[in-house]
Write a structure and sequence with these properties.
The structure is a single chain. The protein is of the alpha+beta class and about 475 residues long. Helices cover about 20% and strands about 35% of the residues. The protein has 9 helices and 20 strands. The strands form 3 sheets. The protein has a 6-stranded antiparallel beta sheet with strand order 3-2-1-4-5-6. Strand 13 and strand 14 (about 390-405) form a beta hairpin. Helix 3 packs parallel to helix 4. It is globular, with a radius of gyration of 24 Å. The termini are far apart.
Length: about 475
Amino acid sequence: MSSRTTKPHEIVERALELSRTDGCVVIAGERSTANLRWAGNALTTNGVTRGRSVTVVATVDGAEGTASGVVSRSAVTADDLEPLVRAAEAAAREAGPAEDAQPLVTGVPHSPGFEGAPAETSPAVFDAFAPALGEAFARARAAGRELYGFAQHEVLSSYLGTSAGLRLRHDQPTGTLEMNAKSPDRTRSAWAGRATRDFTDVDPGALDAELAERLGWAERRIELPAGRYETLLPPTAVADLLIYQQWSATARDAAEGRTVFSRTGGGTRLGEKLSQLPLTLRSDPHAPGLECAPFVLAGSSGDDASVFDNGLPLTATEWIREGVLEHLLTTRHTAGLTGLPVAPFTDNLILEGGGTRSLAEMVAASGHDGPALLLTCLWYIREVDPASLLLTGLTRDGVYLVEKGEVVGEVNNFRFNESPVDLLSRATEAGRTERTLPREWNEYFTRTAMPALRIPDFNMSSVSQGV
């Protein structure tokens, strides 16, 4: 094999051939990206990148149990494979028995196209988007506002092979669009973002119009003190909070009494009603527009994933069903510890509450019994207390005051202290579920669909000077 032209499936097969341990898992990832960046109503840079990563998991069966060694490297060629495999094998021999050891997954059908070339993106993905962006620049320039932002499209082709016979492949397109609008004096700023698979369903002109409206709202500035306010959380903010909740919803930690999902006196809160609204939080690898890998791809082990589960099929899972906690993140290993059904991590998240109102319609129904706040997004989200999943963070790029169904101005930013689990219990309305882009976590998690939520008493714990 040529070290420069080796195909991903050949990398996988060759690594498995080189393996001298009892078991081996190989994941080859081929990634290509295309991006556009702009500032001050003009494109600044664009580019295309490509890269390869390979992860080798070696397992060794010993008298005290099975040990695993995991080594990942980038820019791997055929010449690098043997040192990579040997490093994983050495790591396995030096490690103690793996707590999460399980037999490697078997019996999964081969993916079609496993031996095919990886999928790729190119600047052509922006063929329709770029001219529309230019038109948005012209409108913004004429109206005296400046647009900043970036668009990125990535395609990751993952090839998974194991000594147990699995040969699986998944091509994952991921697109993100973030745009900021600023007033010429830079005293006002607004943000909007979109997630997409191919940039055929995003309209930069619509984003510019949304941002122009928000900059208009910000022409009037109102100072508010910290306190509890009726607050409308837009879908992007709901996504950021519930992604963190999902990352924290591991079965083992809950069963061992360490998280918000632990039941007082022992066990988990499975079966407990978390919300009076009929909220359903679910993942589905085949959800239209949010498709993701239909099998486990794990490059490391932890309470939420196990390298021994690589290739395990994923199905639709309801984490919360009509307000009731139904499942926690459970590997085969933690299923054995807790007695709970296997429910692996899936790379999308959908919240549905049966609502039909848009965010604008929810605004029109707000502020009639006192002031209400409309948020744009959240950032700097950090955990304060795992026992309650209390999070803190800041509002960003626009907090707006709503009175009698109308936005009447922009207020100062706040630091908040809230638990997403507690928010679900206090929410009084869920709007229409729509695909959204998380602001804080979009480098790690982009495939979400969320409604806006009405919280009657969101805790703005202090005033912030953040922007």
